[in-house]
Amino acid sequence: MQNKKVGLDVYRMELFAPDVAAQARPGQFLHVSVHTKGRGSDCYDPLLRRPLSVHGVDVKRGAVALLYRVVGRGTALLARVKEGELLDVLGPLGRGFSLPPAGSRVVLVAGGMGVAPLYFLAEELLRFGHEVHFLAGARRLEELYLLGDLLALEEKRPSFKPSFATDDGSYGFCGPVTGLLEVLLAAVKVDRAYACGPRQMLREAAGVLARFGVPGEVSLEERMGCGVGACLSCACRVREAGGFSYRRVCADGPVFAAESVDWEDR
Ligand SMILES: Cc1cc2nc3c(=O)[nH]c(=O)nc-3n(C[C@H](O)[C@H](O)[C@H](O)COP(=O)(O)OP(=O)(O)OC[C@H]3O[C@@H](n4cnc5c(N)ncnc54)[C@H](O)[C@@H]3O)c2cc1C
Ligand code: FES
Predict the structure, then answer these.
(1) Backbone φ and ψ of 28, nearest 5°
(2) Ligand 1 centre and the CA of 66: distance in Å?
(3) SS3 at position 94
(4) What is the separation of C-alpha 226 from the centre of its chain, rounded to a whole number of angstroms?
(5) Cα angle value 186/121/163 (rounded, 5°)
(6) How far is the CA of 126 from the centre of ligand 2 (A)?
(7) 226 with 252, same domain?
(8) In this structure, which ligand is nearest to the CA of 64?
(9) Same domain, yes or no: 187 and 212
């Protein structure tokens, strides 16, 4: 297992977990206990596991990659995990992205750490021969976490077309990634869209997709308790014919049809 700093407060962890590597689909997540086995007396604090998207798999090596940003106590503890230590993970959990019909042109819209699951999805879509436009947005250049990897993938795969947006204009399009999405959809006919990032960005992306008539899927983030559908702490409101109902982000999602999410819930 490896755990390396790869950017500003961002780490890439590779776990040896052959069963997970064989089963995981893009959009699914692992529920990770942030304590390595036997690290000492404080090993129940924080008690709850932390959900992290599967960022990639290498089935031959039995490896599963996670990409995470340190935002609080749990992820800070994860960042201290060393090669050779044992981590307790549950997964793969949740329902991932659905793949489009053969020969599709798709757009992936990533805000901030949303690149983690979407990079895995891009690899899978390319494997099936789809044309992939990848839009990555961040506040500034230093927060475009996979910039090098995305540019390297473009070199290798002509059907992979990355573009970038930063709020401060330090790299690529100046403005939100949803602005870049509008520019792309005005120029290119796209069959399907996939988005992951902060809720406000997803809400705006869903609005843009609706205006252009492009079907899309969004991956939602909620604070989670159990991660397996039992505690209901991750409920989100979705629209249904004649009203609305609630779904569990951990078990019914985290991926939902963009038009089904009730964005007024919050
Ligand atoms: C399905 C799913 C997949 C995720 N995948 C990734 C990933 O691949 N990489 C990654 O870096 N993060 C991911 N996250 C978010 C990650 O789970 C949280 O950042 C992490 O749980 C924070 O734990 P902490 O103890 O460090 O922070 P805490 O001390 O628990 O919180 C610190 C701050 O982060 C905020 N926060 C914590 N959890 C979330 C959350 N779920 N959504 C929004 N804000 C939160 C809190 O409100 C607080 O402001 C994912 C979340 C979900 C639900
Ligand atoms: S986290 Fe318990 S039901 Fe989703």
Answers:
(1) -80, 165
(2) 13
(3) coil
(4) 19
(5) 40
(6) 32
(7) yes
(8) 1
(9) yes
Its domain, for residue 216, covers 105-260
* pLDDT digit string, tens, across residues 72-131: 999 999 999 999 899 999 999 999 999 999 999 999 999 999 999 999 999 999 999 999
My answer on whether 39 and 111 are in the same domain is: no
Cβ atoms within 10 Å of 212's Cβ, excluding its own: 16
* Alpha carbon of 28 to ligand 2 centroid (Å): 14
Q: Residue-wise over 146-182: b if at least 16 C-beta within 10 A, else e? A: bbebbeebeeeeeebbbbbbbeeeebbbebbbbbbbb
- The pLDDT tens digits of the residues spanning 2-29 come to 999 998 899 999 999 999 999 999 999 9
| Distance of alpha carbon 60 from the chain centroid | 23
Report which bound ligand comes closest to the CA of 229: 2
pLDDT in tens, 171-203: 999 999 999 999 999 999 999 999 999 999 999
Residues 126 and 234 placed together within one structural domain of the fold: yes
Can you give the CATH number for the domain in which 167 is found? 3.40.50.80
266 inside domain? no
**Is 265 among the domain residues?**
no
The answer to whether residue 250 sits within a structural domain is yes
Q: Which amino acid is at 73?
A: R
The DSSP result for 31-53, as a single string, is EEEEEETT--TTTTSS-S-EEEE
Amino acid found at 25: R
Whether 45 and 138 map to the same domain: the answer is: no
Q: Quick check: is 127 in a domain?
A: yes
In the chain, the number of structural domains is: 2
